[in-house]
Amino acid sequence: MTAHPNGTISTEASNFLLNCFVKSPSWKFWLSLPLSLLFLLAMGANSVLLVTIGLEVSLHEPMYYLLSILSLLDIVLCLTVIPKVLAIFWFDLKSISFYACFLQMYIMNCFLAMESCTFMVMAYDRYVAICHPLRYPSIITDQFVAKAAIFILARNSFLTMFIPILSARLHYCGKHIIENCICANLSVSKLSCDNVVLNKMYQLIVAWTLLGSDLILIFLSYTLILRAVLRLKAKGAAAKALSTCGSHFILILFFSTILLVFVFTHIAKKKISPDIPILLNVLHHVIPAALNPIVYGVRTQEIKEGIGKILRRQRITGW
Predict the structure, then answer these.
(1) What span, in angstroms and rounded, lies between the C-alpha atoms of 190 and 196?
(2) How many CA atoms lie within 13 A of 23 on its CB side?
(3) Is residue 5, in this structure, part of any structural domain at all?
(4) G-protein coupled receptors family 1 profile domain spans which residues (predicted)?
(5) Residue closest to 221 by CA, chosen among 122, 117, 114
(6) Out of 43, 67, 106, 209, which could bridge 164 as a Cys pair, Cβ 3.0 to 4.6 Å?
(7) How far is the C-alpha of 287 from the C-alpha of 208, rounded, in Å?
């Protein structure tokens, strides 16, 4: 136990309870089925994409390596959040250990930031492919992907590392019920009897620095792509480029929009049900993961051909 200047005595929590959707308990029943289906779709589609890229030699190119990174991030994010949420829905397993909670907090913040950064690198890849096609093989190389992967990992893992550290150093005054389905930083830190202004400020600064800068560069890339596409004179070239890049951009916009909506609903939580931001936060960890491999992978002709080759090879060899 620790005595504080305000006279309170805090008992360090050994575990927390995730008390989600207390205002709307019926949501658990209605959400469990679509959430489990989305989880299975996300895990299955991303696994198929990874296996296809890994086994098909013709897909061993920088663009597909970036797709593999995105799929790995999606799989980790889903596994970090959704099984625990479903365990709460189905078996009422609300308890989560102190260390598991802050590990989940770190993975969520770090991998969401890495996903945003991967989108930015992929947007740059498309920009070079369309705006500088002759220079593409010399710019987007395996070495470029390796350096991009190191940058994605180093930048985001370091800057997001302090979010759980700042929360873990707080004293929780015997309070251990988190009004959320996941260990979100703000939901956890508000249980503390300490001053949490630093936690809020750091999360805000990191979020807008990482996600904001990525979003600006993504918009810039696709603006330049759109300008170059509109100048294409070859028959059907502009339509094909717009179809591919348009679907990618819509997916990135969806990823960013649902995050912005979550932020604004959290700010305006007094005017709306407190369960809305919780719902958006959970869905943000599974819907993009389910859509990414479909939009980026299945709609790509080379990926579809690669899946077809593997299936034919399996039928022939019995593997």
Answers:
(1) 7
(2) 10
(3) no
(4) 45-296
(5) 122
(6) 106
(7) 22
Within a domain: 1: no
What residues form DSSP beta bridges with 18? 178
pLDDT tens digits along 54-96: 999 999 999 999 999 999 999 999 999 999 999 999 998 999 9
Cα-Cα-Cα-Cα dihedral of 292, 298, 302, 303, to 10°? 80
| CATH at 133 | 1.20.1070.10
pTM: 0.89
Q: Kindly list the distances between the CA atom of residue 27 and the CA atoms of 24, 141, 166, 183, in Å, as whole numbers in the listed order.
A: 6, 47, 32, 19
> H or E element: which one contains 33?
helix 26-55
**98 inside domain:** yes
Does some domain include residue 170? yes
Give me the domain span that covers residue 233.
Answer: 11-317
Q: Which amino acid is at 313?
A: R
How many domains would you assign to the chain? 1
10 pairs with which residues across the strands? 2
What does the alpha-carbon distance between residue 5 and residue 22 come to, in Å, rounded to a whole number?
A: 33
